[in-house]
Amino acid sequence: MEYDRLLRELQGLEAAHPHLLTPDSPTQRVGAAPLEDFAQVVHDVPMLSLNNAFSEDEVAAFDRRAREGLEREGDQLEYAVEPKFDGLAITLRYKHGVFVRGATRGDGTTGEDVTANLRTIRAIPLRLETDAPPALLEVRGEVLMLRRDFDRLNQEARERGEKAFANPRNAAAGSLRQLDPRITARRHLHFFAYGTAGIEGVKLPATHSATMDWLAALRLPVARQRDVVSGVAGLMAYFNELGTLRAGLPFDIDGAVYKLNLLADQERLGFVARAPRFAIAHKYPAQEELTVVEAIEVQVGRTGVLTPVARLQPVFVGGVTVTNATLHNEDEVRRRDVRVGDTVIVRRAGDVIPEVVASLPERRPLRDLASPLHGPFVMPTACPVCGAPVQRLDGETATRCSNTLECPAQRKQAILHFASRRAMDIEGLGDKLVEQLVDTGLVRTPADLYTLQTEQIAGLERMARKSAENLKSGIEASRRRPLARFIFALGIRQVGEQTAKDLARHFGKLDELAAADDAALRQVADVGPVVAASITAFFLESHNRDVIEALRRAEAWVDGEARAAAPARFAGKTFVLTGTLPNLSRDQAKAMIEAVGGKAAGSVSGKTDYVVAGAEAGSKLAKAQQLNLRILDESGFLQLLDQGDSPS
Ligand code: IVH
């Protein structure tokens, strides 16, 4: 890379002519020799904290106090608004435009001199971009780690068998407080400025927003998601908008910060105790909280996989109350060393399933750790539902119950899957009902659903007559589903919705599919040895054949025509749809592609044959152009399907 080459050249020059070495030289970013200890820095202007608001009422109260303090009760105040970065506060000192010292917040009055480490952060300019630098400028901001750098760091730590960091904030803190700057340099920290604290020789603009623009012009990174709004309505609109962006931002934020925009107003309001009156942090519900593991239970899924789940003391996190969190599998529990009684960090971000990020062993109660109750987690050797032995195959992380046919947990999951919306779509059949139906013995396999009588359903506990009738009609309505849905509903391992469609189109009839050998199955696009083996094993199983015969008597599905040979023109061709087409909906276009034997894929790659792009096509189109793929608009696409060749 150009940068690296120039850097090496500069290092050579500086080694030969040490008097030319300046503190703002890019070579100083690489990481100086380790320190014994950090020196203390007394902040000229203390580093205070912000008061928090957790609701619109609290934001309104803050705004009311500000209006009262400024004696402008009837006005709408103007606020500069910005993200609240979830990192560590630091202060940077620039003398005549050159970075000379940086420190952590510490206790607010005295921090630690981390200059050598801050020098390794590329986002922090070693020299300000201006011909007229202030004699002194103290910049306040936040050091953080971008999520992608955090993911990479943890990935590497795991590969080395080391402990991962719980979140980007901890990783940033651990990286900044390294006595060896060479380690900091490898961690790729980032920085955002959010204010100043002391300036000499240059006058600041009149507003906070203009100050931020000025800092940006000096090449100090500032958040792009800044704005200026007025009144509580403006603050709330910003808060909600930032909230929708939150999950997609490259870094973690934990709220929005509102600051009176006029610096003169800020000064007039001043501070109370340790926080300003002119600013407030409006927090989002925390995405991470501490709670205690009450038990670790093991659940059995549709394919028999045993999943350890932590039962937690209820905790409000990510906007909901969480009582369980997945621990994924045996290896993950061990890696995190989560034990019953432990205090753990629980995370729920966006719509993601809550998970236990880390256990805090330092908070582990002192007790008999040798007792099986409090020792390290061990996977049971027998299925917790049916008692059959479990197995964990070499090279797999999953532990499975071996009793695939009779284990009630697996049967329940199989029935739920059979009835699910994208499978047979049986309305009214949820998990509670399936539980009851299986536990009472009324239903053992999906085929039993079709012989259920309304009376039997109505006889279940807490079941109203009307609900029983609804379920009965939901089941009736699910007869004679198309073959593709039925194949998907069977829950054959490795056979997802798309493969089920491909198989249905290729074989046309269920009996053809059931009779197909490995070679015949491999004729279908995307069916490889693993999928083929799973399908043949499924149909060899006599229990499965019995269930299918019962489903045949129930007329659960209708066969179609094999359409493998006819549309050979586009067999094996992959299309990607992107943007909005003028006339065709995405589903229509997809159906047309499938009708001629092609496949509609979600992402562009070297294996893509055609990209059909409509209005507002974004990154997929760009990638297609980059890869020099065939790109068609709607009419080109229709012409292609009609003629079997693309227009020039
Ligand atoms: S302004 C007088 N703006 O939040 C206080 N702080 O509780 C000035 N923080 O430790 C702080 N993003 O590190 C401000 N856009 C932002 C911020 C921000 C994060 C942190 C800051 C401080 C804490 C305040």
List the helices and strands and how they pair.
Layout: H1 2-16, E1 40-42, E2 52-53, H2 56-69, E3 78-85, E4 88-95, E5 98-104, E6 110-112, H3 115-118, E7 136-144, H4 147-159, H5 168-176, H6 181-186, E8 190-200, H7 208-217, E9 227-230, H8 231-246, E10 253-260, H9 263-269, E11 271-272, E12 275-276, E13 279-283, E14 288-300, E15 306-317, E16 320-326, H10 330-336, E17 343-347, E18 355-359, E19 390-391, E20 400-401, H11 408-419, H12 431-439, H13 454-458, H14 465-477, E21 481-482, H15 483-489, H16 497-507, H17 510-515, H18 518-521, H19 529-540, H20 542-553, E22 557-558, E23 574-578, H21 586-595, E24 599-601, E25 610-613, H22 619-626, E26 630-632, H23 634-643
Parallel strand pairs: 2-13, 21-22, 23-24, 23-25, 25-26
Antiparallel strand pairs: 1-6, 3-9, 3-10, 4-5, 4-7, 7-8, 10-13, 11-12, 14-15, 14-17, 15-16, 17-18, 19-20
Helix pairs in contact: 2-8, 11-12, 15-16
Residues 48-50, 82, 84-85, 89, 105, 142, 194-195, 257, 276, 279, 281 line the site of 2-(butylsulfanyl)adenosine.
Sum this structure up briefly.
With 648 residues, the protein is α+β, with helices and mostly antiparallel strands. The strands form eight sheets. The chain has a five-stranded mixed β-sheet. It has a five-stranded antiparallel β-sheet with strand order 16-15-14-17-18, with helices on one face.
CATH architecture of the largest domain: 2-Layer Sandwich
Number of domains: 4
From the 3D structure, determine the CATH topology of the largest domain: D-amino Acid Aminotransferase, Chain A, domain 1
Helix content: 25-40%
Strand order of the largest sheet: 2-13-10-3-9
Q: Give me the count of strands.
A: 26
| Count of alpha/pi helices | 23
Relevant CATH superfamily of the largest domain: DNA ligase/mRNA capping enzyme
CA radius of gyration is 32 Å
| Mean pLDDT reading | 90
Helix and strand composition category: alpha+beta
Low-pLDDT segments: none
What oligomeric arrangement do these chains adopt?
Answer: single chain
- β-sheet strand percentage: 15-25%
Shape: globular
Cα distance, first to last residue?
39 Å
CATH class of the largest domain: Alpha Beta
Largest sheet: 5 strands, mixed
Bound small molecules, deduplicated: 2-(butylsulfanyl)adenosine
